Amino acid sequence: MELHYHGKKSISEILEGTPAYPFDGDLNHGNLLINGNNLLVLQSLLKRYDFSGKIDLIYIDPPFATNTTFTMGSDRVSTVSLSADDEVAYTDCLRGEEFLEFIRERLILVRELMSDVASIYLHIDYKIGHYIKIIMDEIFGAENFRNDITRIKCNPKNFSRKAYGNIKDMILFYSKTKNIIWNEPRSTFSEDDKTRLFKKTDKNGRAYTTIPLHAPGETKNGATASEFKGMKPPKGRHWRTDPRELDALDAAGLIEWSPSGNPRKMIYADEADGKKMQDIWEFKDCRYPVYPTEKNLDLLRTIVAASSNEGSTVLDFFCGSGTTLLAAKELNRNWIGVDQSRQAIKVTKEKLKAADNMFSCNSYSYLEIDLRTAEERDMSA
Ligand SMILES: C[S@@+](CC[C@H](N)C(=O)[O-])C[C@H]1O[C@@H](n2cnc3c(N)ncnc32)[C@H](O)[C@@H]1O
Question: Sign of the CA dihedral 373, 88, 318, 172?
Answer without folding.
Answer: negative
